[in-house]
Design brief:
Elements: E1 7-11, H1 14-28, E2 29-30, E3 36-43, E4 57-65, E5 68-83, E6 88-100, H2 109-123, E7 128-134, H3 138-147, E8 151-162, E9 174-179, H4 181-192, H5 202-207, E10 211-219, E11 232-239, E12 245-252, E13 255-256, H6 261-271, E14 287-297, H7 301-318, E15 322-330, E16 347-356
Parallel strand pairs: 6-7, 14-15
Antiparallel strand pairs: 1-4, 2-13, 3-12, 4-5, 5-6, 7-16, 8-15, 8-16, 9-10, 10-11, 11-14
The protein binds coenzyme A.
GO molecular function, one term: acyltransferase activity, transferring groups other than amino-acyl groups
InterPro entries: Acyl_CoA_acyltransferase, GNAT_dom, Plant_NAT
Pfam family, one: Acetyltransf_1
Length: 385
Amino acid sequence: MAPPVDLIIRCFSRRRDAARVEELERRCEAAPAGKATVVLQVDTMGDPLCRVRNSSMHRMLVAELEGELVGMVRGSIKDMTIRSSPEEHAKVGYVLGLQVSPLHRRRGIASSLVLKLQEWFVANLVDYAYMATEKSNAASIKLFTGKLGYVKFRTLSILVNPVRRRAIRLPPGLKITKLNTDQAERMCRRFMGSTEFFPGDIDQVLRNRLSLGTWMAYLREPDGSNAMPASWAMLSVWDCGQVFKLRVQREKGSSCVPYGTKASSLLDRFLLCLGIPGLPDLSNPFGFYFMYGIHGEGPYAGTLVRALCRYVHNMASLANDCKVVVAEVGACDALKLHIPHRRSLSCSEDLWCMKDLKSKDKDAAGFDWTKSPPPPALFVDPREV
Ligand SMILES: CC(C)(COP(=O)(O)OP(=O)(O)OC[C@H]1O[C@@H](n2cnc3c(N)ncnc32)[C@H](O)[C@@H]1OP(=O)(O)O)[C@@H](O)C(=O)NCCC(=O)NCCS
């Protein structure tokens, strides 16, 4: 359907829109009137831009109809690796947090928002645009793959591990050290730089105040040599709780605040924690840690990744309000087996869709990323959680 003629799509203005955005988010997934339901409340701590703010190029658009705010979308742009051999980079735009008021759906508003965001991408010489959604979100998949010309590209698994207050014992005979940011950057670029979706500005990620650090685990070498150990693993941790808090509640006829595209599939998982014996109580505001840049080499890489995940769990158990630890990896990533998670809380169906925005003359090399087969591993940027 053609969008209403009086539809206005414009940039978000904190002064004019902050309160209205919150209100729209509350309305967006209202539970059926009078029905008791479990809802997830997301407190963005007064900052609707919090999920894109950490990307150096970001934008939020709102849709207005007769003075009413009826939709929104966020986007960010960055340079990233798109294939390993030969190593190639591209400018890529990410579409997230698309929502339209339930009373105004199927009128072309979401399409108009995304097309406008794509204009901003193209004006900034973006080569590809992508978005993430749960495989079960038929409306979103039909919108992007049907109307907007995206293709289904990669499937990822979101792994959620509840935090217990008791520390987990680490296996003996291994050493875990915290890398400083220069070392972490060097290691990330050297060992993950050719991984798909690896961000060119990894230094910004590692130096961000939300990045708690990077840890490396290795088996103690008997000779104390300085060479790289035969088996080792590393990962970094991002503290999402500093940006937004979550709270799971049983309410009557209340509303659920969805938190954008990818996050909604992630956050939906937390609802499952409610009422399961032994799992943390999520009825008070809580945050979560996100593990990223998970990599290992050598015959014991898997064991060392597991040990690092336990180490992060123990860190989380000491933090005030961190109730879950989350990681996201490619659905076929071999390390997935070694990342502790509750299967019932995790999601193996996070779908990323991609669109080629390049002008034809830029395609001289003939490589089309949207048609390339999935690599064994890919990098998930914590800024996009
Ligand atoms: C998904 C969403 C953003 C669509 O917004 P919208 O303004 O209704 O979308 P549009 O009117 O632009 O729809 C364009 C096309 O997408 C498809 N589509 C949209 N909603 C659909 C639905 N519920 N079922 C099937 N197809 C749908 C249709 O092909 C539609 O074209 P048509 O109406 O001519 O058949 C909206 O339903 C929403 O806010 N959902 C909750 C939040 C969410 O899931 N966001 C994730 C987006 S990744």
